[in-house]
Amino acid sequence: MKSFLSGNEAVARGAFEAGIRLAAAYPGTPSTEILENLAEKYRSIYSEWSPNEKVAFEVGIGASLGGARTLVAMKHVGLNVAADPFMTFAYTGVGAGFVVVSADDPEMHSSQNEQDNRFYAKFAQIPFLEPSDSQESKDFVRLACEVSEQFDTPVMLRMTTRISHSKGIVEEAEPVKVPNEGFKRDMNKYVMIPSNAKKRHVIVAERLEKLKKYSEETRLNFVENNGSSTGIITGGIAYQYAKDNLPDADYLKIGFGFPLPIEKIRKFVNSHNMTLVIEELEPYYEEQIKAAGIMVEGKKYFSRLGELSPYKVALGLKEAGIIDKVEGTSHDPETLFPRPPVLCPGCPHRGPFMALKKLKVPVTGDIGCYTLAVLPPLNTMDTCICMGASIGNAIGMEKVNPNENGIAAVIGDSTFLHSGITGLLDAVYNKSNITVIILDNRITAMTGGQNHPATGYTLMGEKTKEVNLVELCKALGVESVREIDPYDYESTLEVIRTELKRPGPSVIITNKPCVLMPKRVMDRPYKVILEDCNGCSACFRIGCPAISPSKEMTPRNHPKAVIDPLLCTGCTICAQICKPEAIVLVDEPAVVR
Amino acid sequence: MNKSLTNVLIVGVGGQGVLLASEVLSEAAMLAGMDVKKSEVHGMSQRGGVVSSHVKFGPKVYSPIIPYGQADIIVSFEQAEALRSIEWLKSDGLIATSRTRLVPPIASGGKFSYPDDPIAELQKKVNRVIAIDADKIALEMGNPRLVNILLLGAISGELGFDGSVWDRAIKARVKSKFVEINLKAFARGQELAEQTRKISA
User: Does a cis peptide bond (omega within 30 degrees of 0) precede residue A259?
Assistant: First the structure.
């Protein structure tokens, strides 16, 4: 059967076909849809959102040792969180097949860096497979399980945003039957005390030699011979960009990327006048090929920054003298206003950021929708490093530079549960004078609305315990924990001001849900009475997409405001800050929305 | 470049249904027996930012991305976004846009402002422009979210698929309770494009 699947949907299908029995992940763009699809379409697989990637990885290890084929999925920076179990699981080896999906984000469409996780596989000395389209995304899951079991090693499936979020036609297959052999006790193999780990490291080195031989022979690394004098070594999405430009060159396509098939590469390079390496991000292939004494060129022509594209590859090929001209014009964007992403109309995060802006205190930030507060017009975030960093950042900043007006750390509910709890513990333990604001919208919003330990539901839709954030913070030793309604601007401002000045750590928790998920929040909209609007632009500065300048001008030629009744959720924040009181409830409900 | 491919770029603002439109178009191309790939980016960029989806179909598609200057058709759900996207258009390509005007808070005067008449600017630079009041018509039809399928109807004549292919694609990709109204919107889009063609002929 043929289906039109994204790379992520294809990985989920591949997991089903490979006989995977457990999958665990924490949501993160561009990996999120893998587990969402598993939970929706392949209910026979136990799938869970874990509180973070490290836990997901450890749950996965348990399942693999327990005899079940297992998949864990995360974005590239998620593997940093899971790096501890990842590096040592490379030593113990697996029970049943284990696949870790690393979905990298070249171009940082939705990430804080664009690290190239192919190096992680090399670092841990485990194999990685890299698909170039949806069909391979599906097929490679099963192949990864087979490699994992054959060589007793975890295997990485390296995806990128463009592979994860592009769709293509996929031929589906029947699932394989995998025997369930249960957990086999083997303390020498699985208990990594130094004496055992030393022995396992020897096995890792021996395994690497076997994998090198496999890499030379596997059909995952294949030559496409079209009788050209130009050879291209490539893999992942870069293969497609190269094919767009040079359909008739000769290719060595790398699907099994660590260890590299160095002898196959040597033979390929020797039989071509010129060989180029086309790879996205870092010169991962190129460095290893050159280190083996093989002459190729790559990053001389193709940028190591951002995503490649058909156009960027064409530019590189022209510079290398392979093609004469580049079709299409250069990227010369119209001098048009930008349209940056913004907090949604009615977003409950808006009020707290307006208050923080007014209070002018340092704001350490975190990863989530609320990171958008750094952009105009709110411009109210001073740091954003990684999941959970806001709290540690604030602690350090306050220790070296005590500020009587206080320092605020802003973090979302899902991010707090992911890796903010330990930071807050440090704030209590080491007597920090910071205020942590947990923007609790009861969902993992930025990634599209996933459940987490405080929502009361599991990934598979079962009802479960909801962690109580207030009690949790109190149990950690925070003496002042206050809940606020973020739509009540005056009291939000007042509580934040008071808590910032309070000695010792304090926590403020907002109590209104995301307006998009799980339910769309839509109250009666507000409107602007044009006669009363004085064009002061205060409502433009709150960054609500429902408010825009109308064509009506004040006598001093400032635009008056207008509210789109289809977008307005009736959150009332703009009405609360409108000095001339020109923003009022509409008389009757507008059109059906 | 592969000359036998058809490249369609769909652009709009987060929440306007760019992804659904590209799903329906891809489904139609697949039902018409072609190889299809499409690409878009999810996540942070979708919060009220620009959303674009690349759809490519033909006998064999390699990369899912349209190079600059290679789109046969651009479908835009917002008039300034149509203007922003023209570097993707082929020299003889078609732009079909809704007259929808979404002014972001950042273009509220000061450093940036929204162009007075993006469609007039578009017409200066591009020979083939279809502009329709898709937002008003969608509202008249009872659902402002029909802009995307209206526009798809407006360009459908360019692609040469059987009418039945579009019917099946809409039924396959649109939630069942919205199928009927979407089929109507699609037909309305076809009519409007037809009228525009007659006027300009």
Answer: yes
Percent of chain A with pLDDT over 90: 92
Question: Where does the pLDDT of residue B1 fall: very low under 50, low under 70, confident under 90, or very high at 90 and above?
Answer: very low
Q: What is the pLDDT of residues A120-138, one digit of tens each?
A: 999 999 999 999 999 999 9
Tally of domains in chain A: 4
Q: What is the DSSP string of A462-500?
A: -B-PPP-HHHHHHHTT-SEEEEE-TT-HHHHHHHHHHHH
- Residue A244 and residue B105: Cβ atoms within 8 Å? no
3-state secondary structure of A246: coil
Number of domains in chain B: 1
DSSP states along A433-463: --EEEEE--SSBTTTT-B--TTTSB-TTS-B
8 Å CB contact of A4 and B35: no
Flag whether A306 is in a domain.
Answer: yes
Q: Say yes or no: A50 and A163 in one domain.
A: yes
pLDDT, tens digit, for every residue of A58-90? 999 999 999 999 999 999 999 999 999 999 999
**Confidence grade of residue A329 (pLDDT, cut at 50, 70, 90):** low
Length of chain B (residues): 201
Which domain CATH number covers A531? 3.30.70.20
- Taking CA–CA distances from B13, the nearest residue in chain A reads A339
Put simply, whether B68 touches A (Cβ < 8 Å) is: yes
| The model's pTM | 0.96
Kindly list the residues from chain B whose CB atom is less than 8 angstroms away from the CB atom of residue A446: 43-44, 47
Number of inter-chain CB pairs under 8 A, A vs B: 175
What average pLDDT does this structure show over B132-154? 95
β partners of residue A66: none
The domain of B58 spans 6-103+114-200
Q: Which amino acid is at A221?
A: N
Question: Where residue B171 sits, what CATH number does that domain have?
Answer: 3.40.920.10
Q: Of B40, B86, B112, which is closest to A165 when you measure between CB atoms?
A: B40
Asked if the Cβ–Cβ distance from A29 to B44 is below 8 Å, we say yes
Say what the pLDDT of residue B182 is: 97
Q: How far is B24 from chain A (nearest CA, A)?
A: 11
Q: Are residues A98 and A126 in the same domain?
A: yes
pLDDT by residue (tens digit) across A408-450?
Answer: 999 999 999 999 999 999 999 999 999 999 999 999 999 999 9
H or E stretch covering A99: strand A98-104
Best of A161, A244, A353, A441 to substitute, by most chain B Cβ atoms within 10 angstroms, is: A244
Question: What is d(CA A414, CA A482) in angstroms, rounded to the nearest whole number?
Answer: 18
A587: pLDDT strictly greater than 90: no
Confidence of residue B119 (pLDDT cuts 50, 70, 90): very high
